[in-house]
Amino acid sequence: MRKREAEIYFGADHIIIKRRYRALGALNDLLIALWFLIGSIFFFYDALMTDGTWLFVVGSMQLMLRPVITLAELIHVKKVYVRG
User: Which DSSP symbol is given to 82?
Assistant: First the structure.
């Protein structure tokens, strides 16, 4: 129940913060999908298999960014709450 109170209290600032982090998360997800799709296509060709493997590594590293983005948003909102 506390979460709803905090959302109402922040008003426009909270909405702006939330939208920015959602956009960042969506961009990250799009890039993850792109790396895995290209990497999968590269696996059809022996000459590109190493490059495909690296794209999978990059995509996997970006998967680790998802919780980092969420934590950054929570910390940012908390700082705004404390200032307000």
Answer: H
- If one counts every other C-beta atom within 10 angstroms of the C-beta of residue 75, the result is 10
* Per-domain residue ranges of the chain: 14-82
Please give the Cα distance from 5 to 84 (Å, whole number): 14
One-letter amino acid identity for 2?
Answer: R
Amino acid 70 reads: T
Question: Residue by residue, what is the 3-state secondary structure of 2-47?
Answer: HHHHHHHHHCHHHHHHHHHHHHHHHHHHHHHHHHHHHHHHHCCCHH
Give the pLDDT confidence of 31-76 residue by residue, as tens digits. Answer: 999 999 999 999 999 999 999 999 999 999 999 999 999 999 888 8
Q: Distance (Å, rounded) from C-alpha 75 to C-alpha 5?
A: 17
CA 64 to chain centre: 9
Look up residue 68 and give its two tokens: 């980092």
